[in-house]
């Protein structure tokens, strides 16, 4: 569990099946957020690197698309098997570069393994439709066709899971990929590129270009041969991508932020609700787009829920995620730490009551690392900034309500719509909630996290633009529908014109 797992001092781009230095040769350090140690140097690539990767992908895709889909799927089966064999090593590397505790890292790697096997299965299920034609001696059907070269831009908080959500459906559908991982967490991309190569994926089908979004991401948008951009990240960056892709008539899939709430009704199993809130709010140090950052609680339970949450927060162990006893790891970097700290000041100024945490942990065993104390606010008004804006840290706000109807209204009052949760024993409220909660994911008697790979992942409103990662819905991002008509009448038939 040390640097011995990292075999190189500098990472290289993976283009056309080869490891290549960036054109300008610049690098930046990858910092372990738990120790502030430098793990490796990652390239800062340029437009030239993106152009080279795109041309390699364009060339490879023409051949790859002609490989029968079940044979393309065989590569993903091998990828999944290799990930399974290397699960522990991948998990430890993930914890070192990302900071999340080892238990969570293993879960994330398992998600990638599951995605490999699931999407491999789609190699035999890239279904179209057949339908009766309007005219005699005519056959009508639809098929899925690959779009060509796709660009994927993935975040640091789930550096392997989200990459598999995007790359695996793209690959099995017959596309080639240009992938820009986050510079904070490049080791997962480096390891996955090696696995692709060892699994027998033809060179050029997946290309990894490391670098900043402002250079590599922008260059991907400007490449005409990249026909799809699939992005997970911040709302501001997503809006910029959508605007620029729209000008180029380039398909874009966006999965952005969340301001997710757990609703606790007066008939809830309170012990279960507390457990769900703690896991959803403080797992991954709150650095999940599905993290619970609001708890909408019925007035009658407010005092008891506050007390129980304070008790459980006090039990949380904070530190280096490689230690199996640790439950909460660090914040990814100094910028993230400062952002979380600034929102504590905002909450206090707005009049919220701080019950726990609210400060940087920077002494003793926490002196070398980006640690923030798990934080609980109460008496939060639904319109406060801390109840409306994504903080992306271990901060949760309690918002009291007087009714089920008010709880639904408060849940839906934010600009995001990713995940929501309700704890209740009332089956009528359960079905009303799953209908009325304006989010792409709804949990009943569970927290706001824990998506399964065979269902669509994404949200409404400011969370995205209508597309979904994961599940069969992911194939819609990376394929085009093609309608095919076969006329075997031996004469010209003019569709509706010749219908009596």
Description of the molecule:
- The protein is 37% helix and 22% strand.
- The longest helix has 20 residues, at 102-121.
- The radius of gyration is 24 Å and the shape is globular.
- It has 2 domains: 3-256 and 464-483, Aldehyde Dehydrogenase, Chain A, domain 1 (3-Layer(aba) Sandwich); 260-444, Aldehyde Dehydrogenase, Chain A, domain 2 (3-Layer(aba) Sandwich).
- With 500 residues, it is of the alpha/beta class.
- Helix 1 packs across helix 7 (213-222), helix 2 (69-85) packs antiparallel against helix 4 and helix 9 crosses helix 10.
- It has a 7-stranded mixed sheet, with helices on both faces. Strands 9-8-7-10-11 form a 5-stranded parallel sheet, sandwiched between helices. Strands 5-6-23 form a 3-stranded antiparallel sheet.
- The model has no long low-confidence stretch (mean pLDDT 96).
């Amino acid at each position: 569990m040390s640097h011995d797992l990292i075999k190189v001092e500098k990472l290289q781009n993976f283009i056309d099946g080869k490891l290549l230095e960036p054109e300008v040769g610049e690098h930046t350090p990858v910092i372990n957020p738990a120790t502030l140690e430098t793990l490796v140097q990652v390239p800062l690539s340029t437009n030239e690197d993106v152009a080279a990767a795109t041309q390699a992908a364009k060339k490879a895709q023409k051949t790859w698309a002609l490989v029968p889909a079940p044979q393309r799927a065989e590569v993903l089966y091998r990828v999944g098997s290799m990930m399974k064999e290397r699960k522990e090593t991948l998990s430890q590397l993930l914890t070192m570069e990302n900071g999340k505790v080892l238990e969570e890292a293993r879960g994330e790697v398992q998600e990638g393994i599951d995605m490999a096997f699931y999407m491999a299965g789609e190699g035999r299920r890239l279904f179209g439709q057949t339908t009766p034609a309007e005219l005699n001696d005519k056959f009508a059907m639809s098929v899925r066709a690959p779009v060509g070269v796709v660009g994927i831009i993935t975040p640091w908080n789930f550096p392997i899971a989200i990459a598999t959500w995007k790359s695996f459906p793209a690959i099995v559908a017959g596309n080639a990929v240009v992938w820009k991982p986050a510079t904070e967490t490049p080791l997962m991309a480096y390891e996955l590129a090696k696995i692709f190569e060892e699994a027998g994926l033809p060179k050029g089908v997946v290309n990894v270009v490391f670098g900043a979004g402002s250079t590599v991401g922008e260059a991907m948008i400007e490449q005409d041969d990249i026909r799809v951009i699939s992005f997970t990240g911040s709302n501001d960056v997503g809006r910029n991508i959508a605007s620029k892709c729209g000008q180029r008539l380039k398909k874009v899939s966006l999965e952005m932020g969340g301001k997710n709430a757990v609703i606790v009704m007066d008939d809830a199993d309170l012990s279960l609700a507390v457990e769900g809130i703690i896991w959803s709010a403080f797992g991954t140090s709150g650095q999940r787009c599905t993290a619970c950052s609001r708890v909408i609680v019925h007035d009658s339970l407010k005092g008891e829920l506050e007390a129980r949450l304070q008790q459980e927060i006090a039990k949380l162990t904070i530190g280096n995620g490689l230690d199996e006893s640790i439950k909460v790891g660090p914040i990814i970097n100094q910028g993230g730490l400062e952002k979380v700290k600034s929102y504590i000041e905002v909450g206090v100024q707005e009049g919220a009551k701080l019950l726990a945490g609210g400060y940087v942990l920077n002494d003793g065993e926490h002196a070398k690392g980006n640690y923030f104390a798990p934080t609980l606010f109460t008496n939060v008004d639904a319109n406060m900034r801390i109840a409306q804006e994504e903080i992306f840290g271990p901060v949760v706000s309690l918002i009291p309500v007087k009714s089920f109807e008010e709880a639904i209204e408060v849940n839906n009052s934010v600009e995001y719509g990713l995940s929501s949760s309700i704890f209740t024993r009332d089956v009528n409220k359960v079905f009303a909630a799953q209908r009325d909660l304006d989010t792409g994911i709804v949990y009943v008697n569970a927290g706001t996290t824990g998506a399964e790979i065979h269902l669509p992942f994404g949200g409404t409103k400011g969370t995205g633009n209508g597309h979904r990662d994961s599940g069969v819905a992911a194939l819609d991002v990376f394929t085009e529908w093609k309608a095919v008509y076969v006329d075997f009448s031996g004469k010209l038939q003019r569709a509706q014109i010749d219908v009596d």
